[in-house]
Amino acid sequence: MQTEFDRYKKEADFVAFKTIHERTRDFGVRDGKPDSLSEFDDQGLLIEVMRNGHMGYSATCETTPEGIKQAFAQAIAMTDASSKYPVFKFDKQIRPGSKGKYQTETKKSLDSLSLAAVYDYLKKTSLALKTSDQIISTSSDAMIITCKQKYLSSAGADFEQSFDIVINSMSATAQKGSETQTRSLHGGRGNCRQVGAEHFQLDSALRECDSISREAIELLSAENCPSETCDLILAPDQMLLQIHESIGHPLELDRILGDERNFAGWSFVQPQDFGTLKYGSPLMNIVFDPTVSDELASYGFDEIGNPAQRKYLIQNGILKAGLGSLESQMRSGLSGVANARSSSWNRAPIDRMANINLEGGDLTLDEMISKVENGVIMFSNKSWSIDDYRRKFQFGCEYGKKIENGKLTKTLKNPNYRGVTVPFWNNLVGLTKPDSVETYGSPYCGKGEPSQIIRVGHSSPYALFKNIEVFGGG
Ligand SMILES: [Zn+2]
Known about the structure:
Layout: H1 2-8, E1 14-30, E2 33-51, E3 54-60, H2 65-82, E4 99-103, H3 115-128, E5 135-153, E6 158-176, E7 179-184, E8 191-194, H4 202-220, E9 223-224, E10 228-234, H5 236-248, H6 253-256, E11 286-288, E12 311-315, E13 318-319, H7 326-332, E14 340-341, E15 350-351, E16 356-358, H8 365-370, E17 374-386, E18 392-404, E19 407-413, E20 416-420, H9 421-426, E21 428-431, E22 438-447, E23 452-460, E24 463-471
Parallel strand pairs: 4-6, 9-19, 10-17
Antiparallel strand pairs: 1-2, 1-5, 2-3, 5-6, 6-7, 6-8, 10-24, 11-12, 11-16, 12-13, 14-15, 17-18, 18-19, 18-20, 20-24, 21-24, 22-23
Helix pairs in contact: 3-4
Bound molecules: zinc ion.
């Protein structure tokens, strides 16, 4: 790539070449039997150019001299044509000349995993989920991804990043008469981490299978969640989506600027809210942190060369910074983060979440439960809905427990709750300690036109909210 890059690097005010090579192996086992296997090998080149303060892009999987020549000419034609109608005139500060290397920390390479070894793990876990005849269906899936990026720019940037990722989920569905209930590993998203082959620990997975299966059966004879306004404790595997939808998306600066209103939506957050809006109670501390070693969306640099740094988005409940790349920061004049990311080589980077994490508090889970006179605890996201402005939301979970006079009592099926973003987070009255924080993620965050699906990470303790509307489902 260096030779080709050198050929074009002086042909515009700024030129960058980024290559991405991603290999995905996707395995599925249903009821102990192999169900699916797919393997993708995807690689290509994104060319970025700047002329007259305007960016242009083109991408190609034909990385031959002729293919690159054509793609470069298209990028130039795009920036020349679109720079006649500029939204904003940028300068070269939006593309730093960063150098370095990032690699996922692993104990054992993912390439060392054979097809047979992964199927054996999935088959054993799928069979272990069937603890009774009431379990009518089980599934165990794994997606194993290795991704390599290289970026060169005329600003002097020269960095490489290498990511090793495992997304591992499993679920069991139980049935009695007309009642059907599904329980899964941390909701449908399962475990999503940057990790090596050491992820596949059968002993711990079999223990998880046992509790998933037993809870699915337990739900068959559980009472429906009551409809009332009461205290609500959310487990970290529901908090991941609460954080994602009601903090992550509304804080994207390109959304606040209106870029996404046609597709993903707008935001209730206004530019003047930064530094002043009391987004939540003083317990609420939200960090953007792509520097955590094993979380799903960790990296050394975002995809335009901005070095990854941990930063508070919300501190002691006050909104401090948005999820905006160097481009959105320059356009809006607001504080942002290193979050220009793309889903692949054939998409331009836009403002995305990376790891958005809620910091822990000072309670044990037992202490938190003991503070609740009347409430519900909910685990594992099942469904979600939120409006285009990220204001009013409704979430459903897989499994609940009633809390009465400081103690967990009966199991509840179909637990749901609803709220409005800012009042909800201002009702946050307790968090469990940092050592209780659990880390999850999602490989399926969608945004952008044309559409881009990317991977995000979220970590959270258990969280206690006051006066929340909970209700059961059908
Ligand atoms: Zn999303």
